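Write out this protein's structure.
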Amino acid sequence: MSPTGKDPADPADPAGPADRPDPATAGDAGGAGDAGRGRPAKARRAERKQVLLRLDPQVYDALARWAGDELRSANAQIEFLLRRALSESGRLPDEAAPIARRGRPRKSPES
């Protein structure tokens, strides 16, 4: 129970978990908020923001067909299109990580 007498895990509680920031994603903007987390910088860059997207079923079907034509997943196609739109409008941040290469990762050359 919380000091207010309400169960903090109760989804019906207006101050419940849905209204609190998720500690796993708090400070995802990077910068000083990540400094005290004790994770390497590379691990912070590898994190991906998860977004729920609602689409008209026919729009999704068209997007999925287009993605299939380009050998991408629907998710990768959405990210590709969003990045292209941001780049063309001059709004893509310089520090945005590049899209991961498609396919299986290359084996590192043995020395």
